[in-house]
Protein 1
Amino acid sequence: LVSREARDEPTVVRVKEAIFGGDHLAIIAGPCAVESLEQVMKAAKYIKAAGGQVLRGGAYKPRTSPYAFQGMEEKGLEILKQAGNEYGLATVTEVIDEPSLELACDYVDMVQIGTRNMQNFRLLKAVGKVRKPVILKRGLSATIEEWLMAAEYIMSEGNDQVILCERGIRTFETYTRNTLDLSAIPVIKDLSHLPIIVDPSHATGSAKLVGSMSKGAIASGVDGLIIEVHPEPCKALCDGPQSLDPQQFTALMEELKRVANAV
Ligand code: PEP
Ligand code: MN
């Protein structure tokens, strides 16, 4: 179902004002984690003003350490919904299991499967049964074939609104948090009709690398970007070093519009 042979036309996923696929560039932005109403409202205000269409925010955080902040759960979903409504942004949040999926569907417009759950096949099947677009992140060490088969799990249950997300893979390089595989963009376009977006924040782990990787992704034909933005990155409970502040995000959006028009 995911392959070009199954469908030649590019799949276009529309979520409120965001269009993933075709000749569009969709921008998702927001904090790694929902921390408070004030934090998300501030982020949403700048994201809307800069031209973003989708607000991200984690309410369930699958952290490497069990002692790290695990997310605000349902309260976080409520905050995300409130900020999305206030600023006219669509919303997306990560789901980590069937209970969080069921709850998230009551609050957000799109759900996200994180890198650590790319091969959680029961979760993929559950997401395949809901009527919400799904962002499927590439597994930390997943091949493109494995990633597409994970998308196949979702589609085989009836949900054809799948957006693939390249977020960097694990290599021997340790300077960056992960290694962004930009070649995944044209390869996916060749193999599949599904839209593909890039997450330059988790790919690099560094706010100063987000701009260049975003531009590289646009030049490579990406359908959208998911960028971490925090009103005060130095105070973030999660992923502060890779988060842009509102001024950096606003300036980057101006540059990205020029790059997108040039390609
Ligand atoms: C995230 O987007 O907040 C996240 C945890 O990303 P990943 O699953 O790519 O690590
Ligand atoms: Mn994060």
Protein 2
Amino acid sequence: MTGAITVDIATPVASLVTLTERGMEDAPREIAAITEYHAHVYYDPSDEGSRARAGTVRAWVEARFPVRMGRWHDVPVGPHPGAMYQIAFAPEIFPSLAPFLMLNRMGLTVLLHPETGRPRDDHTRHAAWLGEALPLKTEILPETDSRNR
Ligand code: ZN
């Protein structure tokens, strides 16, 4: 028996094609464009264990970080495909909260995304997933955010 390693190149190639189709930027966007971040913590509302773990993560974060904690959404809202709550936080908190969630998400899926005034990009090509990436309803997200900040 050999320990053969299979390399799947389909995913990176598809991503590259998508990026090319969308057009490369002439210059990088400055990170000052990020006004805040959201972490969306997904859970299964029909699973007591999943909800309990989400509650533990929530309590741990609230006890340690200056965040704006959103309420529990047992029913999908906006682009989100499942139950979740939102944690909103300032860019200065990212270097500590992001790794805290990496180590303490208790198996739950977390979507980390910036807010730059481009809701569709912020939830897709600007976003990072901890755990399984879920299919967002991106078609309802506007390209640009008309709200005043
Ligand atoms: Zn969000």
